[in-house]
Specification:
By secondary structure, the protein is α/β, with parallel strands linked by helices. The chain has two domains: about 120 residues, Aspartate Aminotransferase, domain 1; about 200 residues, Aspartate Aminotransferase, domain 2 (3-Layer(aba) Sandwich), CATH 3.40.640. Strand 3, helix 5 and strand 4 form a beta-alpha-beta unit. The longest helix has 26 residues. The model has no long low-confidence stretch (mean pLDDT about 95). The structure holds pyridoxal-5'-phosphate (PLP).
């Protein structure tokens, strides 16, 4: 019996931690469970200044991402992955034990886990029958007289269902909740459908926040580099709360190279290939007997409902293909999320499915 665990905060004692793909693990040679990119580029590292603390917000990195995203430097914060951005938003804007966040399940799991670890309550407005955001219900929840909702987390492309946001309804929600709550649009996968980004709305809406990452389309999940985009007043608040040296210098170097003209060209080529692989996979999936539903895919993943997902999951595992199982999640019975990999990985996936 431990003599220290009872010292931990009650919420932490009770917490079920996020089961990341890496923690779940698995035995296999084809990894399609974490929405990572299949390839990796090479980077140069200058290690001559590792004795010095890094810049709070490395200027070369901020300049490069601001220019890529089309925002000003003061509208940008770089963080250790988009996951840290989510946590800093909650720690900055939500009073523990009083305020709450609002999420629209089924969606990315870290919004709820970050809120729990911060002692912040979670309200839910389920996605509608088509897995789209129920904007009217969200607006009502934020604006009801006793509402303590400070942040609404939306995700587009939504992980895992792939749904996007409706721009007109989002704008209406931003106006209806201005001064009451922040509306966060998690754009972790936006490079796969850049025309659907809400970034141009930042200029008009002080309560809009976007979270971004280099972990997906940029193929840099290992370096833990993400971004928050918002108007300067929000970024200034977040900057008070984030750690004093959040971005390690070697990470800033790699991320800056990924955002160079050459780095961006490599990313765009990767996105074109993966989007093409996704379309081919979707078509093939639609013709399989074991499949009952292929969700609308917009990122580098596709959610698929099978007649018997346990059987499919076992068949993948037998062939060394690691997928992400969503079957135990509410409304996602028999669903498996498939990350879009390279051509060989997609062929192995289909070969397994056709053998069933
Ligand atoms: C992967 C993912 C993240 C986390 O990104 P990191 O930058 O690796 O922390 C955030 N949001 C969504 C929706 C994701 O799928």
């Amino acid at each position: 019996m431990s003599n220290t665990q009872h010292l931990a905060r009650k919420t932490v004692q009770a917490l079920t931690p996020y089961l990341s793909a890496r923690r779940i693990g698995g035995k296999g040679h084809i990894w399609l469970n974490a929405n990572e990119a299949p390839d990796c580029s090479e980077y140069q590292l200058d290690s001559s200044k590792l004795n010095r603390y890094p810049e709070f917000q490395p200027p070369a990195l901020i300049n490069a991402y601001a220019s890529y995203a089309g925002v000003n430097n003061e509208q940008l914060l770089t963080t250790r992955g988009a996951d840290e951005s989510i946590e800093i938003l909650i720690r900055t804007f939500c009073e523990p034990g009083i305020d709450s966040i609002l999420i629209c399940p089924p969606t990315y799991g870290m919004y709820a886990i970050s809120a729990e670890t911060c002692g912040v309550a979670i309200e839910e407005v389920a996605l509608d029958a088509q897995f789209d955001v129920d904007y009217f219900a969200v607006e009502q929840a934020v604006n009801k007289s006793d509402s303590q909702v400070k942040i609404v987390f939306l995700c587009a492309p939504n992980n895992p269902t792939g749904n996007m946001l409706d721009r007109e309804k989002l704008v209406h929600l931003l106006q209806a909740t201005a001064g009451k709550a922040l509306i966060v649009a998690d754009e972790a996968y936006i490079e796969f459908c850049p025309e659907r980004s809400q970034v141009d709305l930042i200029a008009q809406h002080e309560n809009l926040v976007l979270t971004r990452t280099l972990s997906k389309a940029f193929a840099l999940a290992a370096i833990r580099c993400g971004f928050t985009i918002a108007q300067a007043p929000v970024i200034a608040m977040l900057s008070k709360v984030i750690a004093p040296y959040p971005m390690p210098e070697p990470i800033a170097q790699i991320a800056t190279q990924a955002l160079s003209e050459k780095g961006l060209a490599v990313m765009l080529e990767r996105v074109a290939i993966l989007n093409n692989n996704r379309q081919l996979l979707q078509q093939a999936l639609n013709e399989l007997d074991c499949v009952t539903e292929v969700f609308p895919a917009t990122g580098n993943f596709v959610l698929v409902r099978f007649k018997d997902s346990a059987k499919v999951f076992a068949a993948f595992a037998n062939n060394g293909i690691i997928m992400r199982d969503f079957a135990t999640k509410k409304r996602l019975e028999n669903c498996i999320r498939i990350t879009i990999g390279n051509q060989a990985e997609m062929e192995a996936t289909l070969t397994t499915l056709k053998s069933l």
